[in-house]
Amino acid sequence: MIDLKKFEVWFITGSQHLYGEETLKLVAEHSQQIAKGMDASGKIPVRIVYKPIVKSTEEIYETLMAANSSENCIGIITWMHTFSPAKMWIRGLSILQKPMLHLHTQFNRDIPWSSIDMDFMNLNQSAHGDREFGFIVSRMRKNRKVVVGHWQDNDVLTQIDAWTRAAAGWHDWQGAKFARFGDNMRFVAVTEGDKVEAELKFGYAVNTYGVGDLVAVINVVSEEAIDALVTEYEATYTMDAALRKGGEKHSSVYEAARIEIGLRTFLENGGFKGFTDTFEDLHGMVQLPGIAAQRLMEAGYGFAGEGDWKTAALVRAFKVMGSGLKGGNAFMEDYTYHFDPDNNLVLGSHMLEIDSSLANGKIALEVHPLGIGGKADPARLVFNVAGGPALNASIIDMGNRFRLLINEVEAVEPQHELPKLPVARVLWKPYPDMKTGCAAWIYAGGAHHTAYSQNLTAEHLQDFADMAGLEFLRIGKDTRLDQFRNEIRWNEAAYK
Ligand code: MN
Q: Which terminus of the chain faces fewer neighbouring Cβ atoms within 10 Å, N or C?
């Protein structure tokens, strides 16, 4: 799985030489305690690393340059224990390329009423020191997250946790490679987009590979490897006797296993973090990859169907951000509605490829015909998904910018058996309600494809959008359609 503990966030405290050695020693000691305390809290998924306090233009510049070039540093946390005149920060901030969180905290939680004197005041100045710093960051129009409160406060650690997860997802995109087998599904609009702009803006590269290149890898998979994977399928999933070894429909499962190994090999050999395919271009492949896509997603790869590279990359980022949390992150599509006024529901699914990390209860491996694509019957995993809070997210290309749109939803347990539905499925209620949620999504131009998350929140995605310089629109419990439509209008001016 994706290991976040290899990543570091640097804790950088600003000060100045004005106060003398004694005070600066205390500033450094306190900073170390805070960094160590957060690192040992068990609430932050990455390492928090103390860096020597910075007291001059040169020290700030050198520290931030080092953060830029450190392979494992995914962002910095800044704090002004004392006053740190902010013109000293201009040179460093102007070259900073990593995400920044400004922690507006104080070493002491409480004012020591009976003993407070001017020495204490001299040391504990973040109430105004952080305002001076905040001004220059705003003056430089730099995105950052501001978190306010005592550094041991649970709510503060929760906000830092969300930001470090977003920073890990952002870091993972830098230099990432996504493989696109075939092109876009013919005539589809929303899955298209500017791949050059995406690479400039997001740091990941999407390039096309001929399906024949993939088929060449699939065709040389060894029989031993296929046999071992089929044995794993049989041990892991519910399967009819006809699909098991020796069964009359076993060849479908056998071919699906061959495709999974071939795809996995291709992705590993090329260092890819995700892929997309299309049922319209499967030359030389026996089936559309179903179980292969599902299991590769569960293993951490980003995926979306029909050439949708934006969603594939977003699914990958979600997997990094949600690593270690309960629940899954998956490729999803709004498929069918239940318009019962007393129980409105969206049924989310796809032709085949719903990530098995969402599965709740038994998973059945089944083989059924696919009405499109003209290939052999593909194997797929069929399962239900648990209820609970979740969200759908979509990145779309608006022509002059990318937009990240999310809708917070409440997933619900399936209330009916769906004996004839041969695909994994999720049921949810959009917030604030079905009509407002769906109308807002459509006004915002949100795609039918989404990344679906059971463990990320609007906070993670707001932080992620700020790091990426993405327009961020949220549809949630408090959304009103008239205000939301105005927000879209105003954003048109903001991004002009
Ligand atoms: Mn689709």
A: C
Residue 408 neighbours by CB under 8 Å, 6+ apart: 389, 390, 391, 430, 431, 457, 458, 474, 475, 476, 477
Choice between 374 and 356, residue whose per-residue pLDDT is larger: 356
Question: 207 is written with which tokens?
Answer: 């390039």
Q: How far is the CA of 373 from the centre of ligand 1 (A)?
A: 13
* CA of residue 484 to ligand 1 center, whole Å: 26
Instruction: Examine the pLDDT at 1 and tell me if it is beyond 70.
Output: no
Residues 78-98 pLDDT 10s: 999 999 999 999 999 999 999
Residue 304: which of 281, 333, 327, 282 has the closest Cα? 333
Rounded to whole angstroms, how far apart are CA atoms 482 and 305? 33
List the one residue out of 291, 282, 285, 314 whose CA is nearest residue 183: 282
Cβ atoms of residues 151 and 105 within 8 Å: yes
- Burial code (b: 16+ CB inside 10 Å, e: under 16) for 40-50 equals eeeebbbbbbb
**Cα 260 to averaged position of ligand 1 atoms, centre (Å):** 20
| Residues in Cβ contact with 482 at an 8 Å cutoff, skipping those fewer than 6 apart | none
Tokens representing 133 are 């710093």
271 CA → ligand 1 middle, Å: 25
The Å distance, Cα 444 to ligand 1 centre, comes to 19
Q: How far does the centroid of ligand 1 lie from the alpha carbon of residue 257, in Å? A: 23
Whether the bond between 432 and the residue before it is cis, its omega within 30 degrees of 0, is yes
Three-class HEC string of 215-236:
HHHHHCCCHHHHHHHHHHHHHH
pLDDT at res. 305: 96
pLDDT digits 0-9 by tens, 160-204? 999 999 999 999 999 999 999 999 999 999 999 999 999 999 999
Separation between Cα atoms, residue 287 and residue 294, nearest integer Å: 14
- Model-wide pTM > 0.90: yes
369 burial via Cβ count (<10 Å: 0-12, 13-18, 19+):
exposed
CA–CA gap between residue 266 and residue 250 (Å, rounded): 25
Q: H-helix or E-strand containing 430?
A: strand 426-430
Check pLDDT > 80 for residue 453: yes
Q: Kindly give the residue spans of alpha helices, DSSP state H, lying in 288-341.
A: 291-298, 309-321
Q: In this structure, are residues 209 and 349 in contact, taking their beta carbons and an 8 Å threshold?
A: no
Q: Is pLDDT at 460 greater than 90 in this prediction?
A: yes
DSSP H or E stretch at residue 461: helix 458-468
Decide: 296 and 263 in contact? Cβ < 8 Å. yes
Q: Which two tokens stand for residue 430?
A: 């959009």
